[in-house]
Amino acid sequence: MTGDDAPLEDTAEDLFEHAPCGYVSTRMDGTIVKVNRTFEQWTGWRREDLVGARRLQDVLAPGGRIYYDTHIAPLLMMQQEVRGIAVEVLRADGGRAPALISSVVRADADGRPRVIRTSVFDASDRRRYEQELLRARRHEQEIAQELQRSLLAGELPADDALELEVAYRPAVRGLDVGGDWYDAFWLREGERVALVVGDVVGRGIGAAAAMGQLRSASRALAATVAGPGPLLEALDEYARRHRVGRMTTLVCAELDLRTRELRYACAGHPPPVALDPRAEPELLWEGRSLPLDAHHAVIRPRAEGERRLAAGSAVALYTDGLVERRRRTLDEGFDRLLLELDRRREEPLERIAAGLMRTLADPDDADDVCLLLARLR
Question: Where does CATH 3.30.450.20 sit in the chain?
Fold first, then answer.
């Protein structure tokens, strides 16, 4: 090595003392026997205040201290190493510094564990990144929720011959909103009303935006076609052409207030329920076809179902979150829905909707739940 290269030569001691991470060596009980300069500078502790005077656990925040005793120490005894454990290190000034620690056990010549060597990495940048990411996701959630609220806002059709009620519960876990939506609007004011409930695949702003596009499209297209089946065909074409809402499920219904005729079509969606005042509630299984844009081609014709309702009958449209739970089958969910509707049949729609959401919707589920009820007066 030339004289010009001499400053580039590092001793083992230099490499240890000025490593890019902290190094701490301890006895098996955690008593510190050696630290490097990097650890001193990062934490503010002096070497003489640590070596022989404190255990590694003592310079961890309370949560890390407990975790060390209950998890890290037992794992070191069993597998002789741990990697990438997130903890907070107590600084000499009382502050806390986020860190990632990795430890390995070293044995003596007889194979007996004698020392634990721990590397301590400053995780401040990682913590800042995680906090910034969390703030960004919360901001996205707020935008998506506001978008969702604005899209679902608006007055429902009002008429002496019709009673309408909606209930909507957003997801309660996670940071994203879902794509469930409902809508009710006049096809011919005072005579025929359209009822729509849908569920867009996915979550977040993308799902909320797709929901808004399909909700607006369904209103616009309903005025140009004759019936729920053709409306699904038009929405199928819209989804395919504009590449929006693929595999969305929805149910579209048309209720004539004069004839009490109900026409409906389901694109991969749970079936509507008819509640006759003098008969048991019934799932309407006719008029079924695949979700929107399921085959990258328009399905023609889309099947329709028809039912003439008795005076005072009600119809329930809903999303799958009302009947699906992880610990029960879908058939059990349908049975519970019918049972609840049957025992609440005499109640006002507002109480029926609130009761169904309270009784059937899973409070711990991460899915949205949407319910639309219509009753002929």
Answer: 11-122
